[in-house]
Design brief:
The chain has 245 residues and is of the alpha/beta class. The protein has two domains: 2-104, no CATH class; 117-235, Rossmann fold (3-Layer(aba) Sandwich). It has nine helices and seven strands. It has helices at residues 13-20, 35-46, 70-79, 94-104, 132-147, 155-158, 168-179, 193-204, 224-230, and strands at residues 2-5, 25-28, 50-53, 117-124, 151-153, 181-186, 209-211. The protein has a four-stranded parallel beta sheet, with helices on both faces. The chain has a three-stranded parallel beta sheet with strand order 1-2-3. Strand 1, helix 1 (13-20) and strand 2 (25-28) form a beta-alpha-beta unit. Helix 2 (35-46) packs across helix 8 and helix 7 crosses helix 8 (193-204). The protein starts with a strand and ends in a 15-residue tail after the last helix. Residues 237-245 have low confidence and may be disordered.
Length: 245
Amino acid sequence: MKLRYLSYENIDIDEELFKMAFATEADVIIEPTNKKCLFVLGMLFVNGIKINILNEKDLNLESTNKSFSMMPYVWSKIGNNNFPNADYSNVVTEMDNRVENIKRLGVSVQKIVNNPQDNKIFLICPVRNATPEQRKWIEDFVANKHEDGYTIHAPHLHTRQVDLFGGYAICKQNAEAVASSSEIDIYYDQSSTGSVFDLGVAYALYKPLILLNKDEIIFNENDLIDNIVKNWPYNNLEFKRTYKK
């Protein structure tokens, strides 16, 4: 089954998550700053679904710096059975060369297995654009959790941020850490794009979520991601979903 995402305006997250259980491939329009797009990408990623980027020519791929332009590009090439092509060269850029080499080593797009460990927490939080005050709060929180006997994975501390694959390796390491956690805590920064991708991963894995800075957030009732965070369905047995927009 192939999915198709040309727009994210009226998307039903639960319906798409259901369909992903039966899909192996998706055609996608990549919108690097669209939070709905990034949330859907997180769900597709953890489900091991190959992607075909329909607007690849419109993306800024001049740099190999990690971003939600380059990361999906790498993801699409890893999952593309015609890359590299045996009959003609379609390895063009330096990033293409890197992807070709890891594919020769057997790297492929695969579903990430949900394997929660007791007392393990994944912390969703801003990384690249975190303020000094946010970093201090987060690091104090991590230290306190360690003292309480928890294993905690904080991306800026425990995920290797050097990534030669445009952020793909970072997303893979974070997704695996989410899958091995029994609880997801979030210091929610509404401007953090990486946090939205991680939320999509956690949502697709049905993880409970604890919002750490709830008193600081002014939720936008017209923002899908704000509503998902505010009314996270997996914190109760009925999985109530009241956020659809």
